[in-house]
Amino acid sequence: MIEPLQLPARGLAFDALAAGPPTGEVVVLLHGFPQTSACWTLLLETLAAAGYRAVAPDQRGYSPTARPTTVSAYRLPELVADVVAIADRLDAETFHLVGHD
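The structure assignment produced for this chain is given below.
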């Protein structure tokens, strides 16, 4: 079952979809432009069925509560730091990362 989450990280709040057991290995799924976490619905269910904890956040600029107004806030180091902070919020020391664009 897919559940909505809100993940506070780095002073922002990222909307996300999650599925799978809380104790499963974490898989973070990053959407491409101009999609949202909804593009991962089928994979969330598949990974959950395999025992993973799959989480697909709406990235910076896509979550209503994670939309900084400066261009510099969207540089690659900021985006990478968001993913690491989200993984920290999920208590994941290690995690699998899947993305597309």
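Interim note for the steering committee: The chain has one domain: 3-99. The chain is about 25% helix and 30% strand.
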